[in-house]
Automatic annotation (TrEMBL):
The chain crosses the membrane at residues 91-112, 192-212. It is a multi-pass membrane protein. Its main location: mitochondrion. It is found in: Mitochondrion inner membrane. This is ATP synthase subunit a. F-type ATPases have 2 components, CF(1) - the catalytic core - and CF(0) - the membrane proton channel. CF(1) has five subunits: alpha(3), beta(3), gamma(1), delta(1), epsilon(1). CF(0) has three main subunits: a, b and c. It comes from Ixonanthes chinensis. Mitochondrial membrane ATP synthase (F(1)F(0) ATP synthase or Complex V) produces ATP from ADP in the presence of a proton gradient across the membrane which is generated by electron transport complexes of the respiratory chain. F-type ATPases consist of two structural domains, F(1) - containing the extramembraneous catalytic core and F(0) - containing the membrane proton channel, linked together by a central stalk and a peripheral stalk. During catalysis, ATP synthesis in the catalytic domain of F(1) is coupled via a rotary mechanism of the central stalk subunits to proton translocation. GO terms for molecular function: proton-transporting ATP synthase activity, rotational mechanism. Keywords: ATP synthesis, CF(0), Hydrogen ion transport, Ion transport, Membrane, Mitochondrion, Mitochondrion inner membrane, Signal, Transmembrane, Transmembrane helix, Transport. It comes from the Eukaryota. Belongs to the ATPase A chain family. One of its GO terms (cellular component) is mitochondrial inner membrane. The lineage of its organism: Eukaryota, Viridiplantae, Streptophyta, Embryophyta, Tracheophyta. Residues 1-22 form the signal peptide.
């Protein structure tokens, strides 16, 4: 299921970009598909310029493709789990953990490649007494390494919790509807409206988590 639906996500993204780039590129007056792609491009470009500090614009843009792929994948993948009989890939911890660890390893490699051992200087604030330096380095490195774990847990927990709530309440509403009892039938709209409200909320969470996870 994870492999199948990740391939489905990839196919949808490629299909969307194919509609925009066919016949040599976009139109001067964009259609709906081109407007969507341009919106995604601008939405990712702004955080890249804002969140990556201390680098020139051209250097920042080298990281744009990787960040754009992460955001686009999550944006298409998270809401697909709301479709009946679909499968939410990001509600599985191994998937989100693999994604967060691969990004963490990539960031660490780029950091050492560009800065050498000076990359570790983030763990030692300026002006710290030398006897305290080993302890502070250890205290800073531990939470830095745990970011790879926490990013995966955050995405997994948000997607799993919302989907579980919707599934439990919708099952309760369906059971009440099938009880063949007038009292249960009259009381059924309550859980049903809650399910509808939670579905809208979960859709918003699925979209917002794509942005939050990419920034993290």
């Amino acid at each position: 299921n994870p492999a199948l639906f990740m391939l489905l996500t990839l196919s949808l993204v490629l299909l969307l970009f194919h509609f925009v780039t066919k016949k040599g590129g976009g139109n001067s007056v964009p259609n709906a598909w081109q407007s969507l792609v341009e919106l995604l491009y601008d939405f990712v470009l702004n955080p890249v310029n804002e969140q990556i500090g201390g680098l020139s614009g051209n250097v920042k843009q080298k990281f744009f493709p990787r960040i754009s792929v992460t955001f686009t994948f999550l944006l298409f993948r998270n809401p697909q789990g709301m479709i009946p009989y679909s499968f939410t890939v990001t509600s599985h911890f191994l998937i989100t953990l693999g994604l967060s660890f691969s990004l963490f390893i990539g960031i660490t490699i780029v950091g050492f490649k560009k800065n050498g051992l000076h990359f570790l200087s983030f763990s030692l604030p300026a002006g710290v007494p030398l006897p305290l330096a080993p302890f502070l380095v250890l205290l800073e490195l531990i939470p830095h390494c745990f970011r790879a774990l926490s990013s995966g847990i955050r995405l997994f927990a948000n997607m799993m919790a919302g989907h579980s709530s919707v599934k439990i309440l919708s099952g309760s509403a369906w059971t009440m509807l099938c009880m063949n009892d007038l009292l249960y039938f009259i009381g059924d709209p309550g859980p049903l409206f809650i399910v509808l409200a939670l579905t809208g909320l979960e859709l918003g969470v699925a979209i917002s988590q794509a942005h939050v996870s990419t920034i993290s």
